Amino acid sequence: MRVILYCAALLVACAAPAMAHHSFAAEFDSKQPVVLKGTVTRMEWINPHSWIHLDVKNPDGTVSKWMIEGGTPNTLVRRGFTKDSLKEGTEITVEGFRAKNGALRANGADLILPDGRRLFIGSSGTGAPKDPGDGR
Amino acid sequence: MRPVVLATLFFAAIVAADHLLAQSPAAGSPAQSERRESKGAAASAPVPRTPWGHPDLQGTWDYKTITPLERRAEYGDRQYLTDAEVKTLEDAAGKRMDLPPSDEQPNQAGTIHATYLTDPGRRVDDDRRTSLIVDPPDGRVPALVNAGGGRGGGRGGGGRGGGAARPGGRADSWTDRSLLERCITWGIPTASLPGLYNNNIQIVQSPDHVVIVHEMVHDARVIPLDGRPRVTGKGDTARNYLGESRGWFEGDTLVVETTNFGTKTNYRGANVNLKLTERYRRVNASRVELLLTVEDPTVWTKPWTVKLGMRPSEGDLIEYACHEGNYGLRNILEVARDEEKAAAGQK
Predict the structure, then answer these.
(1) pTM of the prediction?
(2) Where do the DSSP E strands lie in chain A?
(3) Residue A115 CB contacts under 8 Å (≥ 6 apart), including other chains
(4) Over the stretch A5-41, which tens digit does the pLDDT of each residue have?
(5) Which end is more exposed in chain A, N or C (fewer Cβ atoms within 10 Å of the end residue's Cβ)?
């Protein structure tokens, strides 16, 4: 299993700028950052959060099935992410934080395509829209 | 698996924003705000009206902004940002949204969403104020009546186990969790205040009702305008998560007064005595102003008022059917049970 656990020597767990839908601290462990490289088997485009299902090959040849929590569908759409953006079979790398109980679930913090592009990042040519003009 | 030591401090977006906010250049002035409000030619245009003569507030309106609810202490009694401060804050907000994590903008440990998976906006409010709270003048939520008395609950209503030793709050049952985690409601006024995403409402009018649809957890309030008495006021038997709203027009302003919240709700410690007064005014073709007054004499020493400038939304509301796949609630309970088993095994 190609999982790299980062020990954050100086990790500061911070409050969200505003409350998210559910508590991070109740579900995920900020002291268990993970980097997962695997194959997308499907993406659940559901509320309140999207979930990416990822097959991660272990060194012994077995496969671990991970679930990665993503943004809300509303936000993904508004950031230019559609159902066609992440197709089954795509090899991706996900950086995130693992479930506190060691389950094969993680909160996805970053998602990197094989060509190095990071999804959802407007300045890297993914087409994510900017904030709409407000007349100022 | 191989451990790697990260020699990087993780800062969440709020910390970066707070540090930027803490920079306090020269004083701004109300005149800046006045110029901003008056420069639009549409400001003096007639208020659009419905066929039956009411001011037309209809549409989908976006209230996201990076202006914080409360003024930071570093600003003292200063109500407005300078041009330089606005630029600094908005540049930083854009960077948080657009750039990949780096030493300056690392992934956010301790938050559910990476910054660029959220939609909190990139702009300060139209007036360039240092806080959304306009009254009291210090831009802060007033002191609690029972300061230190432990009534300051979650903003979303219920749960997260106040006082629980467990990180993330008590999770003995789903009933310990917040109304939002349970996908019941985000509640008001929380759903009316800027948050991480879903910062949109839709207003629909008829001659005798106004409907306000909140994108967050897709709540809708159907508000009578005909002066009918409240239904749930008698006997204290049928209080509502969203309270009970009644509306009327004062000149060109729609006033919506909401009371009769239930005991299961919790806005900063307020519930059954909470009274919200919303004042919606069509400022011009592209702006609706909301003045929201929050009061509960058993919680705060005085009422307080928030001002929001709402602009046309990017598009229609998108259904946020929260209960569709709420794995998070199940996962939180599963984690709690596993923690209990692990603790029992250590004894």
Answers:
(1) 0.80
(2) 3-8, 28-44, 51-57, 63-69, 91-99, 105-112
(3) none
(4) 322 222 222 223 344 567 788 888 888 889 999 999 9
(5) C
Look up residue B150 and give its two tokens: 């432990």
What pLDDT does B154 receive?
45
Structure tokens at B65: 């902004």
Please tell me the number of Cα atoms within 13 Å of B116 on its side-chain side.
29
Which tokens go with A96? 């995130």
Contacts 24+ apart (CB under 8 A), B246-255: B247/B210, B247/B223, B249/B54, B249/B55, B249/B225, B250/B279, B252/B47, B252/B55, B252/B281, B252/B282, B253/B55, B253/B279, B253/B280, B253/B281, B254/B54, B254/B55, B254/B57, B254/B210, B254/B278, B254/B279, B254/B280, B254/B281, B255/B279
Using the structure block, give the residue that is written with the tokens 């049970």.
B337
Query: Inter-chain contact A21–B336, Cβ cutoff 8 Å?
Result: no
* Whole-angstrom distance, CA of residue A119 vs CA of residue A116: 9
Opening angle at CA A79, ends A130 and B82, nearest 5: 40
DSSP secondary structure letter of residue B97: H
Contact B135, A136 (CB under 8 A): no
Judge contact between B136 and B304, C-beta under 8 A: yes
Q: List, in sequence order, the alpha helices (H) in B99-200.
A: none
Answer whether A136 touches B (CB < 8 Å): yes
Residue A68 has pLDDT above 70, yes or no: yes
Q: For strands A105-112 and A63-69, give the pairing.
A: parallel
**Residue numbers in B near A128 (CB within 8 A):** 98, 116
Confidence of residue B199 (pLDDT cuts 50, 70, 90): very high
Positive or negative, the CA dihedral B165, B193, B197, B218 is: positive
Phi-psi region of B163 (alpha: psi -120 to 50; beta: other; left: phi over 0): left
Cα three-residue angle B19-B134-B218, rounded to 5 degrees: 85
Neighbouring-strand partners of residue B84: none
From chain A residues 29-58, the ones with a CB under 8 A of any chain B CB are 30, 33, 44, 46-49, 51
